[in-house]
Amino acid sequence: MDFLSQSLAAALEMIWSLDDEMYFIVYISLSVSFFSTLIASLFGVPLGFLIAVNHFSGKRVLITILNTLLALPTVVIGLFVYAFLSRRGVLGFLGMLYTPEAIVVGQVILILPWVAVFTMAAVSRIDERYRYTALTLGATRLHAALVVAREARFGIIAAIIAAFGRVIAEIGIAMMLGGNIKGFTRTMTTAMALEHNKGEFVLAVALGIVLLSVSLVMNIVFQLIQGRYGVQR
Amino acid sequence: MDFLSQSLAAALEMIWSLDDEMYFIVYISLSVSFFSTLIASLFGVPLGFLIAVNHFSGKRVLITILNTLLALPTVVIGLFVYAFLSRRGVLGFLGMLYTPEAIVVGQVILILPWVAVFTMAAVSRIDERYRYTALTLGATRLHAALVVAREARFGIIAAIIAAFGRVIAEIGIAMMLGGNIKGFTRTMTTAMALEHNKGEFVLAVALGIVLLSVSLVMNIVFQLIQGRYGVQR
Amino acid sequence: MTLFSLTGVRQVFEGRTVLDIEHLELSAASSYSLQGPNGSGKSTLLNILAFLEPPTAGEIRFQGRVVDWREKTLHLLRRKVVLVDQHPIMFSTTVIKNVEYGLRMRGIPSRKRRAAAEAALERVGLHAFADRQAHRLSGGETQRVAIARALACEPDVMLFDEPTASVDVENQALIEAVIQDIRRQQRVSVIFATHKRLEAARLAERRIFLFAGKVTGPGGENVLSGIIAHRPDRSVCTLGPTVELEVRQRLPSGPVRIAVKPEGIRVYSAAERQNVAFTSVLHSGRVLQMTLEGDAVKLHVDIGIPLKTVLSRDEAVDSGIMVGDTVRVAIDPDAIQAVQG
Amino acid sequence: MTLFSLTGVRQVFEGRTVLDIEHLELSAASSYSLQGPNGSGKSTLLNILAFLEPPTAGEIRFQGRVVDWREKTLHLLRRKVVLVDQHPIMFSTTVIKNVEYGLRMRGIPSRKRRAAAEAALERVGLHAFADRQAHRLSGGETQRVAIARALACEPDVMLFDEPTASVDVENQALIEAVIQDIRRQQRVSVIFATHKRLEAARLAERRIFLFAGKVTGPGGENVLSGIIAHRPDRSVCTLGPTVELEVRQRLPSGPVRIAVKPEGIRVYSAAERQNVAFTSVLHSGRVLQMTLEGDAVKLHVDIGIPLKTVLSRDEAVDSGIMVGDTVRVAIDPDAIQAVQG
Fold it and tell me: D317 vs C313: CB contact, 8 Å cut-off?
């Protein structure tokens, strides 16, 4: 237990002393995850909403495809994007491999289906009669859709938070597309997984504490919103 | 596109020719994931069931803790178990670090809360009146509990399948506790993430295809069960 | 003035015709009840009249103009007609914001909106609830807020789907009073679906009866399941083990739902056996219930199947029929409407 | 023989007393109806009689023995009593497996089980449904299978919670016939909760009325909300804008729920004003409805509030009262039971 408690103490000391290297890794993680989530939400929320409120041929197929994309392992996404971005790949000329942007691309592919599917579920849960009520009170179609979106807001926010929680904790994409380059693409997860047995165990523990804290806070917010959401419906 | 299609062709050839190395990696992945899921289910299903059907003080707290454990990032679990199993750790004398057993330990910690929480949710969804109906028809308490478990069976099976899908695709724990030792702890995910840029790209693609296939099959079974389940309730 | 004019309106859901109206005219500034058994098409008709669901076929004129079902302009029509659902949906915000919603959609400025919404809440007696969360209301209060929300829109027509079916007795009285108030004080037309005959009698100037999607006479009451059989000389419908009614309508053998119009049922006291109307067949029955209905008395007679018919108060007094009496019942074959299935 | 004997039985949920029975005896091989408004404790009592929920306090004797509420032996008692719910739960398997379930729990061997289950299905007319999936049944069929499932257990007591409340007219008739059949042909006791007075009259030898958790006389009908006020000489309960009833019970001022026993209500035709019973106060009212009930006639009178009372057939004929007549109504203050809230 001695070893563990020593590492913990050193890690806390590192967090407390505002260690530059550590905080820069945290910063990269948060900013990459933020942009991934932002981009995935910008496309995923409207996509999920449109699927939920519209009837069109192929809707079932599209839902099945999205559900299937939920099962994409991170390493498969990583490999797939790698094949495009590597020097030998079609998009190799962009020079994006082993940059934060490459991680964002992979993570967007990872969570866009999540955001879309959970937005769709949240919107679908809203009774058709909300729309009818808005219409009979004189709303245009657009306003009626906004009413539905408003009623589904907690579910949509919960979906976005869950997506952020997923990307901040994922490692496969960050490693394969970022390459764990110190000060550039080294995220909390890649640093923890690859550096701890190179003697940077204290850093790994400190990052673990930060990552765990972020994950728990996300989880608490998620549960609070779900609770609120559950009460209301 | 040339590079991608060449790799794909070579990968398919590798799968088709029953490449020993590749299939051994697949075998290790499947067996590790199988045992993780088995152990997590043996403990998680009864745990979830007991929480769902019993009323006791601290029930809410226990549920909150389990929900919180859902958010544990794989790398945090990996680091935590590492701290115990490493030569300097409390359980270092077991010599378990960098063995398949170590991966199983970490993965059980990862998915046991999942299995428990989703079993609990599935059982809680079963109307209290199922139990009352069994009781009024003369069932003992044990038999009434079995009725409830039977009604929740699709939900429980779905939970176990989802857990298997999660461990087969995870990489953080497999890497930190297994160490990607060829022929021993090298799983599909660790091989894909670490080996592709060491020239084993074809192997990585082949493994990607297998992993994707396994994930998709799990996902299809999961969706079928959920569909069945959804229809019935 | 004609408010709604429906011609050849049919609504088909999943291959099943749930509404089939040859012709129906509804006048402005009047009140109508829509009555009929479950599944007779009441809610479907209300949704069409509210412009929420286009019919599968047929033409609808509203205030003299043919309704164009393209979404682009439909909201302008919808702003003249508000439907209050049986289980009204409240938006997850405050009561007052709910009531203001229709006004906001109409571009009314915020201060005016608030005043109008408060006035509407006042009318349903829930002024004090303005700042409560709408989802916290009881069923009866929700129903009343929904009526206020509709009132605030100042529509030409208010449609209600079973406004009192899901509320307790006290709220029922309050809601009926509000509807009566709307009917009296405004140029608003009221059309409401209801199961309650007494409510229809109290609130409606005119009554529309639906049976299996069709407008029928006021016979939506004696709805029964039977089986059509063909005899050499006539077609009959057997109902239960003992009762057989003659049917004039031509239908293939098999199960049917029938509706017997009350005016086609005559009840004679056991003594008075001469001068019998319609047919030679007399059913023996017992009077189970007599109910006052406006100026008429509704009789509930059991002839092996339950039948309801209506007498004037004078007829009832003259006949000397009392609850519990054994009576003879004649049924006009032409008063029987049958629908397959 | 006494089947159930309840003494001082109280059930409290979340601080609210929902059942409070001083003493109640139910005889074996008899049939009882449980009547009363929503929330009067009917389902709670049924759950206690089915040994599903122990009461908060009180003693229950079943077949002469005090019930021990420890779970260990309770299933042996439960095997003598089966409760059929209003919305029965079907296990997600075939109909026949559902019906066999109780027999399986009793360790009956498989072949005998199947035969008994088929016989039970036969009794509810659903023999042909044996191999269907139970979840695919309609509401009425589900109810009937649930009855068959209970019958198969060959219990001493069958409890029904509103057996016909959620089914259509045809299934209602079928279910009533099955219950009547159970009541006639077996030594089985039947206890059923119902809202339907006619059903209670048809199926029950004895009737139990609950009001606010207490056993009352057959007055569960005139349940109204009012406000108690104290006058110098007496206490009154005001109901609605115009009606004021004298109350003998001592209660603090404030809102109450009251129940007026029908036997405490006398109705006089407008002419006959002498010899008035109970009090000097006479209410003016109108007869809205007369309903046959066994050998009696139930009168529904509106005196500003709706009241129901019962006359014998002879009294009704003699009084010459007709539906629509204006009448005078006297109410016995001792017939009014009030409960705070």
Answer: no
